[in-house]
Design goal:
Elements: H1 2-22, E1 27-28, H2 30-45, E2 50-52, E3 58-59, E4 65-71, E5 78-89, E6 92-99
Antiparallel strand pairs: 1-3, 2-4, 4-5, 5-6
């Protein structure tokens, strides 16, 4: 009886691991996220900031929040910035960009 229960548990665990690896999320580069955020802010404020969203690919999942750093090209001040993904459909997505109201301490 114990062998049957262990064999069943092992089979279920193997099935779960297979399901996880088969349903990997699509990703987008941090450079693409930064480019989209720069464009969105440029459309709002009239000048294009420099945004760095790190080096790791980002999962394309609704609600994913990416921590970025915005540099104002005129003052070189840096601001914490978050980019939130929404309406993800394959590799298409929308973003919401939130920039801290105060620059980071020097």
């Amino acid at each position: 009886m114990k062998r049957t229960a262990l064999a069943s548990a092992a089979a279920v665990a193997a099935l779960l691991l297979t399901a996880c690896s088969a349903s990997a999320n699509l990703t987008v580069s941090p450079e693409k996220i930064a480019e989209e955020a720069e464009g969105a802010l440029e459309a709002q404020i009239g000048s294009r900031p420099d945004i760095d969203c790190g080096e790791e690919n980002v999962d394309l999942v609704d609600g994913t929040v990416v921590d970025c750093l915005l540099t104002d090209p005129e003052t070189m001040s840096q601001f914490d910035t978050t980019v939130t993904l929404s309406e993800v459909d394959g590799t298409n997505f929308k973003i919401d960009v939130q920039v801290a109201s105060e620059p980071n301490a020097a």
